[in-house]
Design a protein that fits this description.
297 residues; alpha/beta; 8-stranded parallel beta sheet; 33% helix; globular; binds manganese (II) ion
């Protein structure tokens, strides 16, 4: 696995702090786009994030440190899927992630459409059988298939549910789903924090704490940027109203840290860069660095 140098790696950092061997954190790009249903462009997500990340500051005032120089962040060359799609594409990603986990790296996988997340989740689950999943999304992605494809971005969590205990899945921000999905959630005890329930005050003022309380101690996070409100995240395939803002979201990661729980892996998907909404790329790059800052001791 070759790494990208300062002219294109995450945060634009020198070799000393971005070579694979000495870096704890590894950014793996999976620019997979095959089953897009509404807006396209998710395949450009990783490149957009990496480009914008050059403008993210190394220093984080909250943790008072430069995490990238403390731990090292390596950026791997993007996966070339060739003609591979669906299950075959997922296998490539899972092998790469597993290899990095074998080296005890903290892996951040960048999509691409949400389909890809099944792979890093499977790889992390093999290493951390006690983990739970924290899933940020406007959609629950629990349709058994969508447009005749079981490996659709709209079905990724249905694939995960085939090998992962559903009562250890916590979904946040859901606001667009079909009835079949809502039935699946009830029957299989998926913990779903619907956007409407949060806004109606069902969880009180500190809804973020309720999310954290429902999580186990070891957490894998999959983050679809369409969880955010379209006002701050227009650059995504299916932007849905009644979304969430940046700070109220970071609060969840603050509370995870405070509770002594641990994020052990992350993927960020569905950014579809747009020249009219450049801030979305930067928002996503900052989100990733902030989560890393709050998750890694
Ligand atoms: Mn989504």
């Amino acid at each position: 696995m070759n790494t990208i140098d300062i002219n294109g790696n995450f945060l634009a950092i020198e070799e000393e702090f971005s070579n694979l061997e000495n870096s704890l954190i590894v950014i793996l790009s999976a620019p997979y786009e095959h089953t897009v249903s509404y807006g396209n462009g998710a395949g450009g997500g990783p490149a957009g994030i990496l480009e914008a990340s050059a403008y993210v500051e190394f220093y984080d005032d909250e943790t008072d440190r430069e995490l990238c120089f403390e731990k090292g962040i390596a950026t791997i060359e993007p996966i070339d899927f060739g003609e591979k799609v669906d299950k075959d594409a997922l296998e490539i990603i899972q092998q790469r992630v597993a290899k990095l986990l074998d080296k005890d790296k903290f892996v951040v996988t960048l999509g691409g459409e949400h389909t890809i997340s099944t792979a890093p989740i499977a790889a992390h689950y093999n290493k951390y059988p006690e983990m739970c999943i924290l899933h940020f999304d406007a959609h629950s992605d629990l349709r058994d298939s969508y447009l005749d494809n079981k490996y659709s971005h709209a079905s990724f969590m249905a694939r995960v549910a085939e090998f992962f205990p559903t009562d250890k899945i916590v979904q946040v921000g859901i606001r667009a789903q079909c009835k079949e999905e809502s039935i699946f959630i009830k029957e299989n005890n998926v913990k779903t924090f619907y956007a409407s329930a949060i806004r109606r005050g069902i969880y009180g003022n500190d809804w973020q704490q309720k999310v954290v309380d429902s999580l186990g101690d070891i957490i894998y996070c999959t983050f679809d940027v369409d969880y955010f409100d379209p006002s701050i995240m227009a650059a995504t395939g299916t932007p849905e109203p009644e979304g969430f803002l940046y700070s109220e979201t970071i609060d969840i990661f603050r509370k995870i840290k405070k509770a002594g729980k641990k994020i052990i892996g992350l993927d960020v998907v569905e950014l579809a860069p747009s020249e009219y909404h450049k801030h979305c790329d930067l928002t996503t790059a900052r989100l990733i660095y902030k989560i890393l800052n709050l998750s890694i001791d």
